[in-house]
Design goal:
It comes from Rhodocollybia butyracea. By secondary structure, this protein is of the alpha/beta class. It has two domains: 15-129, Glutaredoxin (3-Layer(aba) Sandwich), CATH 3.40.30.10; 143-299, Alpha Horseshoe (Serine Threonine Protein Phosphatase 5, Tetratricopeptide repeat). The chain has helices spanning 20-32, 47-62, 79-84, 119-129, 143-157, 161-174, 179-195, 203-223, 228-241, 244-247, 252-276, 279-299, and strands at 15-17, 37-42, 67-72, 92-97, 109-115.
Amino acid sequence: MDFTSSKPVGCGTPIEISSVAEWNSVLRLAYSQNKTVVVDFHASWCQPCKAIAPVYTNLAAQQPFTYFLRVDVDGNGSRPIAGKYSISAMPTFIVIKRPPEGDETGKGKVVETLQGADPHGLTRIVNNHASRAYAPPSTLQSREAEKSKDLGNDLFRKRQYAAAVDAYSNAIELSPNSGVLYANRALAYYKWILSKRDGADTPEKRVLLRVKQMVDSQKVTDIEERWGKGWVRMAEALLEAADEESMESVAEEQRAEGRKKLLEGTNEALMNAVDLSEGKTKAEAQTLLENVKKLLSVSS
């Protein structure tokens, strides 16, 4: 299985811009993803620029969903960029965001400017404007769908997983394009399988539920490719597919290789989850990724 990470190229580390073409290319990409762009206009001879550069790099590492650019105001290719923004002192930091009415190729708007090597000021403007991990819309297409989702959530909390699956299925019929609903149902299938009760009490039934879990997790990543939690659901489904119980229908001589491929797919799904997530989801994905790496080392 081949999973392609959707993590924005360059995010997490400053990007050196040396031409107008590079500048325009990165900005178009940032606008298309609704990402914030922070720019450090600096000069090689500027000592304050050198002093604050590590702070800028550290902030970029802390905010992986924001584009951090560096522009040398004395560079032949980048001098027109500094002129466009009337940069007269170094360092100068600007924050650019795509306006709500803009399109993917439209111009961004400078929403804040900071002059001077001010670590506290720079940290403040970055934290105020930084982009966060993508989360899909939670609003469904009808009030009836919302009610079915809420019922599913309530049943899930009560560990009534079979009933929760039914409620989520009703919601999906009313709102079939919701990645959140497919993720919820995939998780309900997962917990139902682990419970080994209420219709998951035999190996044959659990195998069928794993197929449904996999279908839902694939649907989530198809609909919401940039959602880290969706990739966690995919990883859970792949791990279940690699379970010994699920592999019994595979010819014995092919089981080891088949399980290894499933674990490799799980590894890639979790790498996507880590790249696209933050907070609790990111931490859970990292923990699961370490466990999968150990399983892969044993199977190699």
